[in-house]
């Protein structure tokens, strides 16, 4: 099954390093970042899990719960976490799913079709509180994910979900936004009291509404 943006993230029950969870119940009313690793004790993923733990305060600030998955068993996860904590100078503080049957990995299309029938690709799903998938990313095993980019995207998703704006190229929190084209120009002053500037009729900027 190929999951697309706007699809409901499939629910599942799983064993994790923090106990058994029901995925949708775990997310509750929070946003979610759900991401996969090819296997335990892999070098790039060791650094990624460490960075995620170090950024917990940033995820908490955005009402985001993080959960990772690997097809290795739970005992392997616990041993790997010790290595992550040691080498990345952190404490892993979020659940890692054990998926030795690959059932969840297959449910989310995480099995690498061109490399192995056991290794998951390094996928990322950002899920909104309504359980809809808002972003997907897939990385090769050789390239570490940028979790600051994931935070930047979450900032954009949360902003644009609540205001009639889009975010331009290289946008970061605090930058000007683009007024969506569905807003008539004559309505712009009332809708965006912080001001606006028109570059082209279809390209209109306003200061970030929620700042």
From TrEMBL:
Q: Which Gene3D superfamilies match?
A: Antioxidant, Horf6, Chain A, domain2, Glutaredoxin
Asked whether the keyword Oxidoreductase is assigned, the reply is: yes
Do you know which InterPro entries this protein is assigned to? Answer: AhpC/TSA, Peroxiredoxin_AhpC-typ, Peroxiredoxin_C, PRX_1cys, Thioredoxin-like_sf, Thioredoxin_domain
Q: MF terms per GO, please?
A: peroxiredoxin activity
Locate the coiled-coil region(s) and give their ranges.
none
Among PROSITE patterns, the record links this protein to: THIOREDOXIN_2
Pfam families in alphabetical order: 1-cysPrx_C, AhpC-TSA
The record's keywords, sorted A to Z, are: Antioxidant, Oxidoreductase, Peroxidase, Redox-active center
Gene Ontology cellular-component terms for this entry are:
cytosol
Q: What are the positions of the active site?
A: 45 (cysteine sulfenic acid (-soh) intermediate)
Q: Name one GO biological process term.
A: cell redox homeostasis
Any idea where the Thioredoxin domain is?
Answer: 3-159
Q: Which family does it belong to?
A: Belongs to the peroxiredoxin family. AhpC/Prx1 subfamily. Belongs to the peroxiredoxin family. Prx6 subfamily.
Name assigned to this protein: Peroxiredoxin
Gene source species? Solitalea longa
């Amino acid at each position: 099954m190929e999951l697309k943006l706007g699809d409901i993230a499939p629910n599942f029950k799983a064993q994790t390093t923090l106990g058994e969870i029901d995925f949708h119940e775990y997310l509750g009313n929070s946003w979610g970042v759900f991401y996969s690793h090819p296997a335990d004790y892999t070098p790039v993923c060791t650094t990624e899990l460490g960075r995620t733990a170090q950024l917990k305060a940033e995820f908490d600030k955005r009402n985001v719960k993080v959960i990772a998955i690997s097809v290795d068993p739970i005992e392997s996860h616990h041993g790997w976490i010790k290595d992550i904590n040691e080498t990345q100078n952190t404490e892993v503080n979020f659940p890692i799913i054990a998926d030795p049957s690959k059932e969840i990995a297959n449910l989310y299309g995480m099995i690498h079709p061109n490399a192995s029938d056991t290794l998951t690709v390094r996928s990322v799903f950002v899920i909104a509180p309504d359980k809809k998938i808002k972003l997907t990313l897939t990385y090769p095993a050789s390239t570490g994910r940028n979790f600051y980019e994931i935070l930047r995207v979450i900032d954009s998703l949360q902003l644009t979900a609540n205001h009639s704006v889009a975010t331009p190229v290289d946008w970061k929190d605090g930058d000007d936004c683009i007024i969506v084209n569905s807003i008539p120009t004559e309505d712009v002053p009332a809708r965006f009291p912080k001001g606006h500037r028109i570059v082209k009729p279809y390209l209109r900027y306003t200061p970030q509404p929620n700042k």
